[in-house]
Automatic annotation (TrEMBL):
One Pfam family here: START_2
Protein name according to UniProt: START-like domain-containing protein
START-like domain location: 2-124
Originating species: Mycovorax composti
Length: 125
């Protein structure tokens, strides 16, 4: 069964420059995404509860987006953090794209909500 792509959007009260640091650096990601984060040779190593997951950076653009793929995941599956601006309100929007089985999208979305809440706390939102 193939996974489905889903997207979540979160309005953020901070500059794209600051937000990008939290999305694309090991120090920033270590503040909210995982217990430990190391970066070596274009790969990120995310640690939770003693286990480590490895992800490679597929693409990135400073202050715009970063796309990761878990090592071992299908080539067309990734997770991405994108920074958009609302044309109407000029507010910064964090757009997260991920993949999950259809039955797991709700749970995966709730996990992202929890993670982003931690990110917002770190950002002072």
């Amino acid at each position: 069964m193939s996974k489905q792509k889903f997207t979540l959007e979160y309005p953020v009260r901070c500059s794209p420059t600051i937000l990008y640091e939290f999305l694309a650096t090991s120090n920033g990601l270590g503040e909210w995404f995982a217990e430990t984060v190391d970066e070596r040779d274009g790969k990120f190593y995310f640690g939770w509860n003693g286990s480590v997951e490895e992800a490679e950076v597929l693409e990135k653009e400073e202050e715009s987006f970063i796309r990761f793929r878990w090592v071992g995941a299908p080539k067309d599956e990734y997770f991405e953090f994108r920074i958009d601006k609302s044309e109407i309100t000029n507010q910064t929007i964090l757009v997260i794209t991920d993949f999950a089985e259809k039955k797991d999208i709700k749970d995966q979305s709730q996990l992202w909500d929890y993670q982003v809440k931690d990110l917002f706390h770190r950002l002072g939102n």
